[in-house]
Amino acid sequence: MKTKGFFLKLAVLTVVVVPSLAYQDPNGKVSPAKTKPTPSPKAPPKTAEPSRKGTTTPTSKASTAGELTVKTAIPGSAVTFDGRARGTTGRDGLLNLPNLTPGDHILIVSKPGYQPEERRITINPRESQIVEIALTPSPVPVSVNVNIPGAKIQIANQLFEGSVTDLLLPPDDYEIKVSKPGYKTQSSRVELEVGKPKRISITLEKVPVETLLAQAEESFKARQYDQVITDCLDVISALPDQPRAVLLLGQSYFIRENHTDSVFYLVKAVRLGEQVTLPIKHHHSTLTKGDELCTGQFLLRRDGFEFQAVGSDHSFSSPWTKLYELSVGLRRNVPQLHTRVGVLNPKNKKEKKDDFNFFAVQSETRRSNPNLVTSTEVYCPNCQPTIDAIYQIMQQLKK
């Protein structure tokens, strides 16, 4: 049994040898046949080992990038992204920035003549967004020179004297007004453009005194007292003792209740030969009616003064030498101007000293007791400055 098993194994291991073909030439010589080399078997392809984190392959940068479009109203604006110049906006004000890494970035948009605008931008994966940038124009320096020193220059609600040097203003249209007493005021409009400094020269022309004085007269008749003051100051700057200009200026100050200046100019006007007219109310009283006022005016001249009453016979005139008393007092808490005047009696030509009391033109009478129809008293809560001014004028002229 062992022998049989041995022969079975031997039969399995027997190799069959196939004789190779040979080539026999015509002479009967046999040459062995050429054999082709057997190619080596190819190695089986390697299979990728499964990832421990999963079976998804990593995403490329291009597939996660975001996109940003910068939009401005100013074409040609330079765009910087994370410190790197990325170009300028086109004629349509647009610039596209593709393939941006997701995350936070710094965007800066700038252009000469405008203030740079910086933004922190967040780029999201696979998203496209638009950011609008409004550039603010930078202030433009403007300078103004005038041919006359000391001129007043008004621009953008600011007042300067002499000249203006590199005043920074936003680009816009402005009116520049230049004036000086004795010169014709000049006004002009100026357009300040982005990034273009402006230098302006203005020439003032002298105005004839006659023209200014005529303007002041017309303005006084029209009760445009502020314009009267302006014109008369221009005249006085050239001719300090021009009588009519001094008078109109003083009366305009008095009406505007600038009593300090009015006293100075009205006294000067009288001494230059002008007659000053001041509204006033004369006071008189009776036992039955109480206080009464009649309207009138003072006429102040170099040689004396006169009171002209309206609708009553209380008028009088007197030289300054016959003004024996002049004082300011109170009548029931209302300021009153008291005078004692030597009046000549036209019949016997003798002088009689009479007392006359006056109140400011804005004073009035009212009932002192509502139950008594005939009882009245003077009322004027703000008359003190006016009475004081008249007193000072008369006191200085009396000397």
Explain this structure.
This protein has about 400 residues and is of the alpha+beta class. It contains 7 helices and 27 strands. The strands form 8 sheets. Strands 22-21-20-19-25-24-23 form a 7-stranded antiparallel β-sheet. The chain is elongated, with a radius of gyration of 55 Å. It starts with a helix and ends with a helix. Mean pLDDT is about 85; it is low at about 1-35 and about 45-60.
List unreliable stretches of 5+ residues: 1-36, 46-59
Q: What portion of the residues fall into strands of 2 or more residues?
A: 35-45%
Determine the number of helices (DSSP H or I, runs of at least 4 residues): 7
Strands of the widest sheet, in order across it, are 22-21-20-19-25-24-23
* Terminus-to-terminus distance: 177 Å
Query: Could you give the count of β-strands?
Result: 27
Sheet of most strands = 7 strands, antiparallel
Q: Which descriptor suits the 3D outline?
A: elongated
Structural class: alpha+beta
Radius of gyration: 55 Å
**What number is the mean pLDDT?**
84
Query: What fraction, in percent, of the residue positions are helical?
Result: 10-25%
